[in-house]
TrEMBL record:
Organism name: Roseburia inulinivorans DSM 16841
Superkingdom in the source lineage: Bacteria
Family indicated by similarity: Belongs to the peptidase U62 family.
Gene Ontology MF term list: metallopeptidase activity
Protein name as it appears in the record: Metalloprotease TldD/E C-terminal domain-containing protein
Domain Metalloprotease TldD/E C-terminal: 2-144
Length: 150
């Protein structure tokens, strides 16, 4: 990460260069600064090896919504299913729903494995409050990292 993102209006207010991150649902709606092209390329690790390397943790499935606090580098995401892992094996316990939260730089530094598998979908939306929805794609490889769950 080298710089923040902003649309043309935010760039004028901040006295910086715009990064082309203004998006809106349609022309009659307000443009908001939104992230683009956030993507993790697949690594070389097998999912089975990632799971077997965990002494205690969770395999998270179906992230359904999330939000970020770009000013304070916070992240929060709702996940539908968390499968418990102990000593590299699934215990059979499933928790739902789960909220993951953390400080983005710490999360990025904690990544220790990336799967060679990658799944992408074009069925997501980026919303601003209750009124602005822009279609987005999501997905990527499996990632082994540390983050707070609740």
């Amino acid at each position: 990460m080298k710089t923040g993102i902003c649309d043309a209006q935010a760039a004028m207010a901040l006295g910086t260069k715009p990064t082309g991150n203004g998006r809106r649902e349609k022309n009659s709606h307000k443009a908001y600064t939104r992230m683009t092209n956030t993507f993790f390329e697949p690594g070389t690790d097998k999912v089975e090896d990632m799971i077997s390397s965990i002494s205690y943790g969770f395999y998270l499935e179906n992230a359904s919504s999330g939000m970020e606090d770009p000013k304070n580098w916070g992240i929060q995401c709702l996940v539908d299913i968390a499968r418990e892992i102990k000593d590299g094996k699934f215990t059979g316990k499933v928790f739902s729903p789960i909220v993951l939260t953390g400080y983005v730089p710490d999360l990025l530094k904690s990544i220790s494995m990336m799967s060679d598998e990658c799944e992408l979908a074009g069925t997501g939306y980026c919303g601003k409050g209750h009124k602005e929805w822009v279609k987005v794609s999501d997905g990527g490889p499996y990632i082994k990292a540390r983050i707070r769950l609740g």
